[in-house]
Write a structure and sequence with these properties.
Mean pLDDT: 90
CATH topology: N-terminal domain of TfIIb
Number of helices: 1
Distance between the termini: 26 Å
Oligomer: single chain
Length: 64
């Protein structure tokens, strides 16, 4: 998880990103590094990534 500049969220480990799915729809997620979120297009939700840790709780997600 390196390569982040000041103020920019860190990159997610590609191995982890390949395995994470939306807890609501079980579909793959897209990492929006600029926003620091994992986006589920199928659910219309964006899950936050805090300090490099994905928060995969529907109640913590933001509606798109």
């Amino acid at each position: 998880m390196s390569g982040a500049t000041a103020g920019e969220p860190p990159a997610l480990d590609p191995w982890l990103l390949e395995r994470l799915v939306c807890p609501l729809t079980r579909t793959p997620l897209r990492y929006d590094r600029g926003a620091g979120e994992l986006v589920s297009e199928a659910a219309g939700l964006a899950y936050p990534v805090r300090d490099g840790v994905p928060v995969m709780l529907v109640e913590e997600a933001r509606a798109l």
